[in-house]
Amino acid sequence: MQQQSLSFLAVITVFASAHVATARDLRNVTEPKNPQSCISLKASGKDDTKIIQKAFDSCTKGKAVALSSGIFYSGPLTIPSGVSLLVEEGVTLRALTDPTLYDLGAKTCGTIDEYGLGCKAFITMHKAKGSGIYGKGTIDGRGGSIMTGHNITWWHLARDAVVVRKNQNNPRLIQINNSVDITIYQITLTNSPFYHLVATETVGFTVWGIKIIAPASALNTDGIDPVGSQNVTIAHCNISTGDDDVAIKALTAPAKHISVLNNHFHRGVGMSIGSECTYGVSDVFISGLTINDTHNGIYIKSNTLRGGHVTNITYENVCITNATSPIHLETNYYHYNGTNTPVYRNITISNVKILTNGTSIIHGLDKSHLIEITLKNVHIPKDSKFSIRNAKITGNFIRDVNGGQCGYAGNINM
Ligand SMILES: *[C@@H]1O[C@H](CO)[C@@H](O)[C@H](O)[C@H]1NC(C)=O
Ligand SMILES: *[C@@H]1O[C@H](CO)[C@@H](O)[C@H](O)[C@H]1NC(C)=O
Ligand SMILES: *[C@@H]1O[C@H](CO)[C@@H](O)[C@H](O)[C@H]1NC(C)=O
Ligand SMILES: *[C@@H]1O[C@H](CO)[C@@H](O)[C@H](O)[C@H]1NC(C)=O
Ligand SMILES: *[C@@H]1O[C@H](CO)[C@@H](O)[C@H](O)[C@H]1NC(C)=O
Ligand SMILES: *[C@@H]1O[C@H](CO)[C@@H](O)[C@H](O)[C@H]1NC(C)=O
Ligand SMILES: *[C@@H]1O[C@H](CO)[C@@H](O)[C@H](O)[C@H]1NC(C)=O
Ligand SMILES: *[C@@H]1O[C@H](CO)[C@@H](O)[C@H](O)[C@H]1NC(C)=O
Ligand SMILES: *[C@@H]1O[C@H](CO)[C@@H](O)[C@H](O)[C@H]1NC(C)=O
Ligand SMILES: *[C@@H]1O[C@H](CO)[C@@H](O)[C@H](O)[C@H]1NC(C)=O
Ligand SMILES: *[C@@H]1O[C@H](CO)[C@@H](O)[C@H](O)[C@H]1NC(C)=O
Predict the structure, then answer these.
(1) According to the lineage, what is the superkingdom (predicted)?
(2) DSSP class of residue 35?
C-alpha cells in the first residue's frame, strides 16, 4: 500500500515538471559570468568609435573588449560573432547624437517619414554566436539630447511624428538579429532614442540582472523586445520606461519558449505580448513580477492586421499596483484591419494580486473567437471595474484586496 502511493506521487512529480518544462525557455539558464577581456580601453573624451570598433574586430573569440574608465563617446558599433562588450562599473558609453552617423543611406535618420526605418542601431549584433554585453556600467542612448544639426531631441521628434501620424527615424540602442546564444548581463541601459534592447529571430537569449531607465514621457522606449525569438530568459531585471517594459512579438517568425522571471517594472506600458503576433506566440512562462505605475499590467494586444495565435501562456506570482488596466487582453489594438485573426487560448493567470482599482479589459474578437483564460487565486479590490466581451473565463476574480504594497518580484508586503 505504502509503496503504491509513493510511486503514484512520483508519477505526479514527473508530470508536473514535464508540464512546466515545455512551456518556458527549454535551456537550463543560470547566472552568467563576465568573460575575460582581450583589451582594456580608457575613454579619450573625444569620438572613440574607431578605437572601440577596431578593438572588437581584433578581439579573440570568447573574450570581451573592456571599457575600463571614463565616459566614452561613440557612433554606431557592431559587435562581431563570439566577441563581447564589457562596460565596467562607473564607466559610461554614450551615443553620439549626430543622425548622419546612423543613417542607412536614405538620409532620413533624424527625420519623420512613413516608415521609420532610416537609422541603424547604436550597437548591432548580426548573425553572432556567443556574443554579449556585460558589466555594471551604463550605455546611454541620449534620446533627450538635441540631435546634432537639428534643434530638437530624438524624443521630441518622436512626439512630432505622432502629431502628423507618421514615424520618427530614431536609432534603437541595441539590435540583435539572427543570432545564437547571446547574453546581456548586469548592464544599465538608459535613454534610448527608440527601443532599448531588441533580439530578432535569435535563439538562446539571456538577459540577466540588467536595469533599463527612461522617462515615462519618452515614446517608443520599449525595454526588452524579443521578436520571433526562442529560448529566451529575462530574469532579475528592473525596468522603467516610456513604453512596453517587455514586449514579446512574432512579426516574421514564431516567438516561443520564453521565461520572464523575477523582474520589477516601474512605469511604462507593462508586460506585453504583441501587437505583432503574426507567426504565433506560445509557451511563455512569466513568474515573479512586480508591476507599479504602468498603463497596463498583464497585457496582450493584437488586431486582425498583426494577429495570430497566442497560446500556452502562464502568469504566476504577479503583484500589480497603480496600473490603469491591470489585466488588458485586446484583439482590436488601434482598430487596424487585416485578415489575420488574433486567437488567445490557454492563458493561465494564477497567484496574482492587484492592489489598486483599475479597469481590466478582456475583448475577444467575436463570438467564434473567444479569449480563453483561466484564473486561479487572482485577488482584486472590490471596486475594480471590468469591460468583458467575447471571452470564456474559467475561475473567478476574488474581490478581497484592501491595501498592501508590492515588494520585489511579485512578493506582497501587507
Ligand atoms: C535541465 O536540467 C534538468 C534537471 O537537472 C535535466 O533533466 C534536463 O535534461 C536539463 N535540460 C537541458 C536542456 O540541459
Ligand atoms: C532550445 O533549447 C533546447 C534545450 O537546449 C534545445 O533542445 C532546442 O533545440 C532549443 N531550441 C531551438 C529553436 O534551438
Ligand atoms: C527648429 O527649426 C525649424 C526649421 O528647421 C523651425 O521651423 C522651428 O521653428 C525650430 N524650432 C525651435 C523650437 O526652435
Ligand atoms: C535587423 O532586423 C530588423 C527587423 O527585421 C531590420 O529592420 C534590420 O534592418 C536588421 N538589421 C540588420 C543589421 O540586419
Ligand atoms: C531591482 O530592484 C530590487 C529592489 O529594489 C533590488 O533588490 C535589485 O537588486 C534590483 N536589480 C537590479 C538589476 O537593479
Ligand atoms: C511604486 O511607485 C511609487 C510612485 O512612483 C513609488 O513611490 C513606490 O516606491 C513604488 N513601489 C515599488 C514597489 O516600486
Ligand atoms: C499612478 O500612475 C500614474 C501614471 O503612471 C502616475 O501619474 C501617478 O502618479 C501614479 N500614482 C501613484 C499614487 O503612484
Ligand atoms: C496549456 O498551456 C500549458 C502551459 O502554459 C501546457 O502545459 C498545457 O498542456 C496547455 N494545454 C493545452 C490544452 O494545450
Ligand atoms: C501548447 O502546449 C501543448 C502541450 O504541451 C502542446 O501540445 C502544443 O503544441 C502547444 N501549443 C503551441 C502553439 O505550441
Ligand atoms: C477598421 O474597420 C472598422 C469597421 O469597419 C472601422 O471602424 C475602422 O475605422 C477601421 N480601422 C482603420 C484603421 O481603418
Ligand atoms: C477604489 O475606488 C473606490 C471608489 O472609487 C475608493 O473608495 C477606494 O478607496 C479605491 N480602492 C483602492 C484600493 O484604490
Answers:
(1) Eukaryota
(2) P
Q: Identify which of 396, 397, 349, 392 has the alpha carbon closest to the alpha carbon of residue 372.
A: 392
287 assigned to some structural domain:
yes
Q: Is the CB of 383 under 6 A from ligand 11?
A: yes
Mean residue pLDDT across the chain: 94
Which residues surround ligand 1 with Cβ inside 6 Å? 26-28
Average pLDDT of the residues in 332-348: 94
**Structure letter (DSSP) for residue 335:** G
Whether 1 maps to a domain, the answer reads: no
Question: Among residues 279, 122, 264, 124, which one has the least CA distance to residue 190?
Answer: 122
Give residue 413's pLDDT.
63
Please determine, for residue 12, whether its predicted confidence score (pLDDT) is greater than 70: no
CB atoms within 10 A of CB 230: 19
Decide: 370 and 390 in contact? Cβ < 8 Å. yes
Of 2-16, 147-161, 371-385, least confident by mean pLDDT is: 2-16
**Residue at 311 is within a domain:** yes
The CATH number of the domain where 259 resides is what? 2.160.20.10
* Ligand 1 nearest atom to the CA of residue 27, by list position: 13
Q: What are phi and psi of 13, to 5 degrees?
A: -60, -45
Nearest to residue 348, comparing CAs of 324, 300, 307, 313?
313
For residues 121 and 104, give the distance between their C-alpha atoms in angstroms, rounded to a whole number.
Answer: 10
Q: Establish if 116 belongs to a structural domain.
A: yes
407 pLDDT tier (thresholds 50, 70, 90): confident
State the distance from the centre of ligand 2 to the C-alpha of 13, rounded, in angstroms: 23
Write the single-letter amino acid at 212: I
Our count of domains for the chain comes to 1
Minimum-distance ligand 10 atom for the alpha carbon of 337: 1
Range of the domain at 111: 6-413
Mean pLDDT, range 182-202, rounded to an integer: 98
Tens digits of per-residue pLDDT, 86-138?
A: 999 999 999 999 999 999 999 999 999 999 999 999 999 999 999 999 999 99
Beta bridge partners of 199: 176, 226
Does residue 124 have its Cβ closer than 6 Å to ligand 4? yes
Q: Read out DSSP for 148-193?
A: TTSSSBHHHHHHHHHHTT-EE----SEEEES-EEEEEES-EEE--S
Biggest alpha carbon–alpha carbon distance for the chain: 82
Measure the CA–CA gap between 76 and 374, rounded to whole angstroms: 46
Distance CA 129, CA 54 (A): 19
The three grid cell numbers given for residue 291, joined into one nine-digit string: 508591476
Mean pLDDT for 362-376 is 97
